[in-house]
Structure formats: structure tokens, C-alpha cells
UniProtKB/TrEMBL annotation:
Belongs to the peptidase M13 family. Gene3D superfamilies: Collagenase (Catalytic Domain), Neutral endopeptidase , domain2. One of its GO terms (biological process) is protein processing. This is Peptidase M13. GO terms for cellular component: plasma membrane. Its cofactor is Zn(2+). The keyword Flavoprotein does not apply. CDD domains: M13 (cd08662). Keywords: Hydrolase, Metal-binding, Metalloprotease, Protease, Zinc. It comes from Janibacter melonis. Residues 444-648 form the Peptidase M13 C-terminal domain.
Length: 651
């Protein structure tokens, strides 16, 4: 058994931190650890996810062996056993797919197409529009349906138009034909050609990924009449009913991309119904293939793994089974995970960390020279009203309505339908401010502007991010800076559009907004065109990554200030047994949490779609922080040197 790598690796003495902090901290790890054959990238997050995955595996295998009287354990064990019974899946062949394909074959016109996409969407099949129920940005005390562009089989619209994705696009057509053929499609080549025609057509109406980050531009409330005017050929009532929405659910909805609705409506008029059937058949097969026989599973991996991410080897079946459980029954698994793996002392230590970070933000706002007192008061009010959620939710999702049939694809569809009903059931009810949108076994964190909250699941609260017994410099440079990053999203180029109640409201004076925009533009320009170790031939998109870069640099600055609040200047500047000062250990810890490598294909895919900068650039983002230059005595001419006039610090 391969030993899981840790992150207590030595620093690289041949690389000076003044020239490349990320390399100084991580080169020894990067040179000794290979990316596993079943991964596109590998680093801190991935290692912790492997640990969480193993922990969850133990839980679900125990549930499968002996669920006892716990109804959630029976569901967990039943669905996992169904997934792991590969021979039963193989024996069933294409029979479980037939009801879904019957929906496709029944499509005769635009209305029946929309009904089919609604019914199939409930089962987890991608459609023309993705309905998302969330708090209304204009009134965060109510839920509303957001309408999100959809319909593509590749990661986003740029894959259909941008020359840098031409190789993937050419390969995609072959993947479509192969999967359709394996799913029993006659004349799969002609059907694949039709799929590409439709997806190209849909892609021309999509908003690009950078524009789609604009919280104001993508907030477009529409009445039912206005939806009908925007997309007269889209039968909204039939689609909503097929999705299971109650009457009146779209009396007021939020169109995220109104131009896409207009483009889609025209496409419904102009695209031949046979092409629509081909497109829908493909999306049924694409969504279903991972839960069918070996040939379809392998062909799906050829597309999603090898072509898009350069991953040479499919993940072990048990890992894929764990991923299925995480999506279908995540809270049921999470409840058992927390009982075993989240010690109470972690909660107390995190509470103290958050308190110091909030205080550091208070002091930062008070000292900002570019922000007026009027805007500072609004910023502080937002800070005081935000909610930290750490570890696990106070209430778990209910899965009692899920009945398992024993057929894998059927049960995956039922789990998706239950989740869809849960979301739709929020409409008209009170906002649940205790809800989590990640499970506690997830190694990640998020900021939710609609609820002005940060959420840190239990699984991320472990080394190298956090250790209740560790040196404060390590914790503040790790999880502390990441908490600062997430709080900072409340004040980045998107989050700054929301006030402390979660409402989309401009609380800035015009002068302050202009100053903020100028700083953000400088950060865009600083990252725009930078290149990473893992994709040296592709440039970073500064406009796509600006929000996360604001979060990183703000999180670093605030995390360091909070560290100084926690330990004082003397401890922060004193040299320890390792020869480093506390401040230096803080920045080393920051660089360490971004340790990781990526295959070229995966790195290039992420550059196209991921709002985060590559890991090495994130680790070296501290070149914007004065305290970093002071801690390591960085001088002009050093690789990490950034002239004070060029350093961008917003908060």
C-alpha cells in the first residue's frame, strides 16, 4: 500500500524565499511525489481529500455490511452496495437507460422537448436551462428561481470558439459518437454531427465566464410575462411543471443571462426537431454512462478524464462509489463522519481564530485611507453581521423519502429527484439560515454573499491548514489566511455588491467605488498574462481570477494582522528553534497550503474555467504584502521583489 504523503517536507535550500517562496517551501515535495495515475492534479487539497475519502469509505462499507436499524445507514449501505455490484450493473445492460431514451424518442416539437428536459433534469440530465433555487439577491428573506444557461457537453462556451481548445473540440466529436454507439444509437456518426451543430448554436448565446461573474449584470428579475416576451418559443409553464415546480414558481424569476434566453428561443424555432432529439439523446447518455456497463464507463472516462484533464487511469470503483454517496446522501454520511472525526477542541480553537480575524478586519477598515467614513460604516456593519459556520451543520438533511429499487441508474435518478424536490420545496417558505451547501467531510470552504456567511467544513480543519496543537504562526498562515480569504469575498469585486443582509445593494459612495475599482484593475493587470509552472504556454486571465486574487491577498494581510493580534510583535519577530521567525513561519505556512502539481491538460482546462489562479502563483501572491518583504528582507532585484508602488493591497 502506497503511503499517503505528508507536508512536513524540508525547505529547499537551493531556492531562496526572496526569489521564489513557493519553490523554497515546496520543491522538495514536488520533486519526490508523483501525481497519482487517477488524478489530474495533486497537492494539499487532494491529499486531505484522499484521507476524507478513506474515512468515508470505512463508514459506507460498514453501513453496507451491517446497517442496523439506522434508516440513513440502510440507504448509505444500499446505494453503495448497488454501485459496487459491477456484475449486476453489467447484466442489466442498457435496460435501465431505456425509459430515459423513451423520453427522447417521444420528442416531436419544442414543447415536448422542454417537457422531456424538465423530467430528465430532475433525474440529473443536463438540459437547456438549469433552475437554481436560492435566496433572492434583491430580497434575501425570500427564495426565488434563478435561470442559468446550460446545454453544453464541454466545460464552457469558449471550447466551441477558442482556437486554444481546437484539439479538444475535434476529439469531442469522436467521444460523442463512441458513447452514442455504445448506448445503442443507430447511425451514431450522423447523430454526433447533429449534437455538435446544436451545441455550437447554444454556445453562441452563452455569456462568457468572465462576464458571468458580474453579480449586478446577471441579476435580472422577470415576471412570467417578461419571460414569455424574452423567450416566446419557450413553453415556461410546461417546462416548470415537468420539473415539478408549483404553480406560480416563475411568476418572478431571475434570468442570469437574458440574451441566452432570446438566443435559445430563436434556436427552438429554427433547429430541426431531429437535431434536438440527437442533442437530448447525447445528454441522457452523457449523464447516465458512469452508472452503466464497463464499456460506457470507460468511454465516459476517455472524455471526462483523459481528454479534458489528461488523467491516464480511471479511479478505483470504490472511490467513485464514495463520490456518488457524497452527492446523493452527503449529509447522512456527514453526520457519521463528524461523530468520528471532528474533535470538540477544534471548534474552540477555530472560534478564537475567527474572532481575531474579524478584529483584524475591523482595524483594517478603520485604517483604510482610500475609503470614506460613510462607506467604512457600511463595511463594518456588514462585517458585524456576517455568520461563521465551522465544522458541521446544526441540522441534517432528511432522506427518508428516498426508496431504493436496487437498480443503480434508477436509484441515482431517484436521489437526484429527491434533491430537486428539496430545492423546489423551499419556494414560498422561510429562508433556512442554518443550511449548509457543503458537507462536513468536504475539504474546501466558501463564502455565501446571499447569507453573508463563511462555511468551513470539518474535513479542512487538519494539517497543514490547522492543528489545535500547532504553532499559531502555522495555523494563522494556513487556515487563518484562508478564513481571511473567505471573509474577504464579502468585499471582493463581486461580494462588494452585497450588503450585510445579503441584499444586492450599492452601499459605496461613487468616489469609493471608483477607488476600489482602480485597485481591482491594478490586480487584474498584475496577474493578467502570468504563467504557471504547470501550464507555461497558457496565460492567466486576470479578469477571471481577480475576485479570488483579492481574496488571497486580503486573506494574507488580514491573516497576518490577526496573527500579530494573537501573539504580539515580540513572538512574531523572535527566531525559533527552526531558525525562522514567527512571521517567516506564517508565510511559509501560506505557501505550503498551496503545494501541488497538475498535468498539463488539467492545468490548461483550469486556466479556462477556474476563477482561482494556479497554485504556485497563489503561493507567491504574498509579494504584495509589505510584511512578507520585511520578514524575509526581500530587496530590489530579488525574484519576489515587487516595488511598493506596484503592490496591491485593498484591505
Amino acid at each position: 500500500m502506497t503511503q499517503t504523503p505528508t507536508f512536513d517536507h524540508p525547505l529547499d535550500p537551493t531556492t531562496r524565499p526572496q526569489d521564489d517562496l513557493y519553490g523554497h517551501v515546496n520543491n522538495s515535495w514536488l520533486s519526490s511525489v508523483e501525481i497519482p495515475a487517477d488524478k489530474g492534479r495533486y497537492g494539499v487539497f487532494d491529499v486531505l481529500r484522499e484521507r476524507s475519502e478513506e474515512d468515508v469509505r470505512a463508514i459506507v462499507e460498514e453501513a453496507a455490511a451491517d446497517p442496523g436499524s439506522d434508516p440513513d445507514a440502510r440507504l448509505i449501505g444500499g446505494l453503495f452496495s448497488s454501485f459496487m455490484d459491477e456484475e449486476a450493473v453489467e447484466a442489466a445492460g442498457l435496460a435501465p437507460l431505456r425509459p430515459r431514451l423513451d423520453e427522447v424518442d417521444a420528442v416531436a416539437d419544442a414543447r415536448s422537448l422542454l417537457v422531456a428536459t424538465g423530467r430528465l433534469g430532475r433525474l440529473g440530465v443536463g438540459g437547456l436551462l438549469a433552475p437554481i433555487v436560492a435566496t433572492d439577491d434583491g430580497n434575501p428573506d425570500e427564495y426565488v428561481v434563478y435561470l442559468e444557461q446550460s446545454g453544453l457537453g464541454l466545460p464552457d462556451e469558449s471550447y466551441y470558439r477558442d482556437e486554444q481548445h481546437a484539439v479538444v473540440l475535434r476529439a469531442y466529436r469522436g467521444h460523442v459518437q463512441t458513447l452514442l454507439s455504445l448506448a445503442g444509437t443507430a447511425d451514431a456518426g450522423s447523430v454526433a454531427d447533429a449534437v455538435l451543430r446544436v451545441e455550437h448554436r447554444l454556445a453562441t448565446g452563452h455569456l462568457d465566464r468572465v462576464s458571468n461573474r458580474d453579480a449586478v449584470a446577471t441579476y435580472n428579475p422577470m415576471t412570467a410575462d417578461e419571460l414569455a416576451q424574452a423567450a416566446p418559443s419557450f413553453d415556461w409553464a410546461a417546462w416548470a411543471q415537468a420539473w415539478g415546480m408549483p404553480e406560480g414558481a416563475l411568476d418572478r424569476a431571475i434570468a442570469r443571462q437574458p440574451d441566452y434566453l432570446r438566443s435559445l428561443s430563436t434556436a427552438l424555432d429554427e433547429v430541426d426537431v431531429a437535431d434536438w432529439r440527437a442533442w437530448l439523446r447525447w445528454h441522457v447518455v452523457l449523464a447516465s454512462a458512469p452508472h452503466l456497463g464497463r464499456d460506457l464507463v470507460a468511454a465516459h472516462f476517455d472524455l471526462a478524464g483523459r481528454t479534458l484533464s489528461g488523467i491516464p487511469e480511471q479511479r478505483a470503483r470504490w472511490k467513485r462509489g464514495v463520490s456518488l454517496l457524497e452527492g446523493a446522501l452527503g449529509d447522512a454520511v456527514g453526520k457519521l463522519y463528524v461523530e468520528r472525526h471532528y474533535p470538540p477542541e477544534s471548534q474552540a480553537a477555530m472560534d478564537e481564530l475567527v474572532e481575531h480575524l474579524v478584529e483584524a478586519f475591523r482595524r483594517s477598515f478603520a485604517s483604510l485611507s482610500w475609503m470614506s467614513e460613510e462607506t467604512k460604516a457600511e463595511a463594518l456593519a456588514k462585517l458585524e453581521s456576517f455568520t461563521p459556520k465551522v465544522g458541521a451543520p446544526v441540522r441534517w438533511k432528511d432522506y427518508s423519502a428516498l426508496e431504493l429499487s436496487g437498480d443503480l441508474l434508477t436509484d441515482v435518478g431517484r436521489a437526484n429527484a429527491l434533491a430537486a424536490d428539496r430545492e423546489i420545496g423551499k419556494l414560498g417558505g422561510p429562508v433556512d439560515r442554518d443550511e449548509w451547501f457543503m458537507t462536513p467531510q468536504t475539504v474546501n470552504a466558501y463564502y455565501n454573499p446571499g447569507m453573508n456567511e463563511i462555511v468551513f467544513p470539518a474535513a479542512i480543519l487538519q494539517p497543514p491548514f490547522f492543528d489545535a496543537d500547532a504553532d499559531p504562526a502555522v495555523n494563522y498562515g494556513g487556515i487563518g489566511a484562508v478564513i481571511g480569504h473567505e471573509i474577504g469575498h464579502g468585499f471582493d469585486d463581486s461580494g462588494a455588491s452585497f450588503d450585510g443582509t445579503g441584499a444586492l445593494r450599492d452601499w459605496w459612495t461613487p468616489q469609493d467605488k471608483e477607488a476600489f475599482t482602480a485597485l481591482a484593475d491594478r490586480l487584474r493587470a498584475q496577474f493578467d498574462g502570468q504563467r504557471s509552472r504547470t501550464a507555461p504556454d497558457r496565460a492567466v486571465n486576470g479578469a477571471l481570477t481577480v475576485g479570488e486574487n483579492i481574496g488571497d491577498i486580503g486573506g494574507l494581510a488580514i491573516g497576518h494582522a490577526a496573527y500579530r493580534i494573537a501573539v504580539g510583535e515580540e513572538a512574531a519577530t523572535s527566531v525559533g528553534d527552526d531558525g525562522l521567525t514567527g512571521d517567516q513561519r506564517f508565510f511559509v505556512s501560506w505557501a505550503r497550503v498551496w503545494c501541488g502539481d497538475a498535468r498539463r491538460e488539467e492545468a490548461e482546462r483550469l486556466l479556462a474555467i477556474d476563477p482561482h489562479a494556479p497554485q504556485d502563483l497563489r503561493g507567491n501572491a504574498c509579494r504584495n504584502i509589505d510584511a512578507f518583504h520585511e520578514a524575509f528582507e526581500v530587496a530590489e532585484g530579488d525574484g519576489m521583489w515587487l516595488d511598493p508602488a506596484d503592490r496591491v493591497l485593498i484591505f
